[in-house]
Design goal:
Elements: H1 4-17, H2 22-29, H3 33-40, H4 48-58, E1 92-94, E2 103-107, E3 118-124, E4 140-147, E5 150-154, E6 157-161, E7 166-170, E8 175-179, E9 184-191
Antiparallel strand pairs: 1-2, 2-3, 3-9, 4-7, 4-9, 5-6, 5-8
Helix pairs in contact: 2-4
Length: about 210
């Protein structure tokens, strides 16, 4: 993913090209105008789930925010019914500035344009990440541990996870991984449901002119 300095101008350009104001994107995404302004001015680094919601609000594919390693989206998944086969050498590495150091993300479906969820292969390295940092974003999340072990906090609960263990939770609750004894690698699935459209305001019927 682009760093905050590069991501802000990109989002602003996408917004202005669509004739949208910050207020418009705020209503569509559910974020505040102030938060969006910080992102556009490079003073906030949004996590992947936030970018998914912004992509929906701007009507663009989320992969426009990702810096691929040469194997990114090439239009192969433009068909909404396409089946996209991703081999290990075609995974897209994502630099997630919002997560901070210690996290390695590989997108497993960057080549597919139309999708309701974002799957990632995620490795967290102990000693490199901020143990106090937590994440919160709209939607739901699913984790499946492949290698290593970790304590995973969701709200006030802590779950001890090893290979084969999984979690499914409401991602609006604060959550964060804490690897134990070494790096932990797991499958992470993000789902951000579309925000319901605000009902259109009905115009009051005009009073009929009285005949004299």
């Amino acid at each position: 993913m682009a760093d905050a300095a590069a991501l802000g101008p990109l989002i602003r350009n996408l917004r202005t090209r669509r004739g949208l104001r910050l207020e418009d994107v705020a209503k569509r995404s559910g974020y505040t105008k102030g938060f969006l302004s910080k992102i556009e001015n490079g003073r906030a680094s949004p996590p992947i789930a936030t970018l998914m919601r912004l992509a929906e609000a701007l009507n663009v594919d989320p992969t426009v925010f990702f810096h691929a390693n040469g194997n990114g989206s090439n239009g192969a998944g433009a068909d909404p019914h396409a089946t996209v086969h991703i081999t290990p050498d075609r995974r897209t590495k994502v630099l997630n500035a919002g997560a901070g150091p210690g996290y390695t993300y590989w997108s497993l479906a960057a080549q597919r344009t139309h999708k309701a969820m974002e799957p990632f292969l995620l490795t967290v390295h102990p000693g490199e990440f901020d143990p106090k940092k937590t994440f919160q974003h709209p939607g739901e999340e699913f984790l499946y541990v492949l290698e290593g072990a970790m304590d995973y906090r969701v709200g006030s609960e802590t779950f001890s996870l090893g290979p084969g263990d999984s979690l499914y939770f409401d991602s609006t609750r604060p959550h964060a991984p804490h690897p134990k004894g070494g790096p932990v690698t797991f499958l992470a699935m993000f789902y951000a449901p579309p925000r319901p459209e605000a009902p259109a305001k009905r115009r009051a019927p005009r009073a009929k002119a009285r005949k004299k």
